[in-house]
Write a structure and sequence with these properties.
Enzyme class: oxidoreductase
Subcellular location: Cytoplasm
Number of strands: 12
Structural class: alpha/beta
Main location: cytoplasm
Distance between the termini: 32 Å
Radius of gyration: 19 Å
Strand content: 15-25%
Number of helices: 9
CATH class of the largest domain: Alpha Beta
GO cellular component, one term: cytosol
Helix content: 25-40%
Shape: elongated
GO molecular function: 4-hydroxy-tetrahydrodipicolinate reductase; NAD binding; NADP binding; oxidoreductase activity, acting on CH or CH2 groups, NAD or NADP as acceptor
Bound molecules: NADPH dihydro-nicotinamide-adenine-dinucleotide phosphate, the ligand O=C(O)C1=N[C@H](C(=O)O)C[C@H](O)C1
């Protein structure tokens, strides 16, 4: 079978460069396009060189329609507005769209859902094996404990991250809510400040820390009377997300249109 032809969106970004490196070291995939923002000073530069590799001849472009003509998939770790624009093109082309972008609003998520009758989308706030296993464990623990155990999700990321809570924190919150059979939107406590009043029983709390170069730390704390259970994951290198995204693209290649998650890719949906 021929190699899966992939476009990296946000090729000049932190994840974009990691994805270019991951593609170069993975069998069965090849980089055929590199997308950057219109007006970016990186347009025209070589994606390999930007990723710290030898030149690979793939120049950064802002024209996804042209790039996608000969592609099988797009790996998209950009910003919500770009991802929403890319969704329409990927759907029209019928190519796999792996979405790692976080900070998507509920209306962004509705747009993504609306194209999945013709698009093959794998979307997750975190593409690593470890975090998806953590999510499965969180769901199981939340199912076993009653609301006498307060659930708090704490995350820390590098100083350049622009959204909070992280996509991973929200994914873990969804897992905890699923374990408790409640809707996260009705039970989340975000951004406490000032005289907040006592904690509401059943809330799932979120706290975000930013600083330095932290790749991504997440903890789920189950705080009960006189005891606490803590589940945690610490990402040490962005390559775990990049390799996860490639696994997702290869898994989705040839699948029916639909909206899939990393739990589907990793076989953890029924864990
Ligand atoms: N799901 C997961 O496993 C992971 C998700 N992420 C998420 O991925 C996203 C990117 O993270 P990161 O790489 O650190 O961020 P960066 O800011 O380093 O990279 C984003 C890149 O996207 C580019 N971009 C902006 N607009 C467009 C556009 N219209 N078309 C193409 N490219 C565009 C930016 O260009 P410019 O700088 O010129 O604006 C930038 O190069 C974030 O939402 C982050 O939370 C990150 C790691 C793992
Ligand atoms: O912006 C990042 O860096 C990361 N973003 C994702 C998130 O929002 O959870 C995944 C990872 O934690 C790194």
């Amino acid at each position: 079978m021929s190699d899966m032809r992939l476009i990296v969106a946000g090729a000049g970004g932190r994840m974009g460069r990691a994805l270019t490196r991951a593609i170069s070291e993975t069998k069965g995939v090849v980089l055929t396009g590199a997308l950057e923002a219109p007006g970016s000073e990186l347009l025209g530069q070589d994606a390999g060189v930007l990723a710290g590799l030898p030149a690979n001849g793939v120049k950064l472009s802002a024209d996804l329609w042209t790039l996608s003509a000969g592609a099988d998939g797009i790996l998209d770790f950009t910003v919500p507005a770009a991802t929403i624009a890319n969704v329409a093109i990927a759907a029209q082309r019928g190519i796999v769209h792996v979405i790692g972008t976080t900070g998507l609003s509920s209306s962004d998520n509705a747009v993504i859902k609306s194209v999945t009758d013709q698009a093959i989308v794998v979307k997750s706030g975190n593409m690593s094996l470890g975090v998806n296993l953590l999510a499965a464990l969180t769901r199981r623990v939340a199912q076993s404990l009653d609301a006498g155990f307060d659930i708090e999700i704490v995350e820390m990321h590098h100083r350049a991250k622009i959204d909070a809570p992280s996509g991973t924190a929200l994914l873990l919150g969804e897992a905890a809510a699923a374990g408790r059979k409640v809707d996260l939107d009705d039970h989340s406590a975000r951004g406490r400040d000032g005289v907040t009043g006592a904690r509401k029983t059943g809330d799932i709390g979120f706290a975000s820390l930013r600083g330095g170069t932290v790749t991504g730390d997440h903890s789920v704390i189950f705080a009960g009377p006189y005891e606490r259970i803590e589940l945690a994951h610490k990402a040490e290198d962005r390559m775990i997300f990049a390799h996860g995204a490639l696994k997702a693209a290869q898994w989705a290649h040839g699948k029916s249109p639909g909206l899939y998650s990393m739990m589907d890719v990793l076989g953890l949906a029924e864990f």
